[in-house]
Amino acid sequence: MIIIAPSILSADFARLGEEAEDIRTAGAEYLHFDVMDGLFVPNISFGIPVLRSLRKTSGLFMDVHLMIDRPLRYVRAFCEAGADLVNVHVEADSAENNLLALEQIRALGRKTGVTLKPGTPAEALEPFLPFVDMVLVMTVEPGFGGQSFMFDQLDKIRRVRAMLDEVNPRCGLEVDGGINAETAPLAIEAGANILVAGSAVFGKSDRAAAIAALRGHQAEWR
Ligand code: DX5
Ligand code: ZN
Q: Can you say how many angstroms the Cα of residue 107 is from the centroid of all Cα atoms in its chain?
């Protein structure tokens, strides 16, 4: 089953609650929540209080992607604010500290994830693979929505899927960046089962048709 995770980064921030409800009724399973600190990536988005507010009104699975330095400092706060899954970048701290972060997330009853930037090889995942519910392979440089899919990441997605099949076959494999109706089938064919999409969902007026197109279905006639 393919899971669609629209990135709220591309939503209308003046109407966040309505935007979340709109993608839920349009068929999305997850809400992808992109946190940026202006240090790990050259952009600043939103954080803990925004997640807490969205959590109050939305039943969507909150998929929190932390693009922040030393995430160990903040994983507890994001879990307590309502994250269902917290994803940390392998590049954001030492493996030792990231393992501690994953342990904290799990101890708080949430799901765990690790993320790779495009330049980071699949092998960097090795210390984490037994302890995660999701691996996220970035298919753009993190920091901004609306960039073009990096086709050279498809081999890495295949490699990660093969590694997971060996040590943690139930682990999800998410892709993030430049996913649209043309690139989604390539990512799925390479082994991804969770698709993040910002502009390809929030940039469209008919979100149900946009989500159906990502799954490879024709838009319903209306
Ligand atoms: C980029 C973010 C993505 C981004 C995706 O740093 O992690 O989640 O919002 O946006 P699109 O789908 O427009 O590439
Ligand atoms: Zn993201």
A: 21
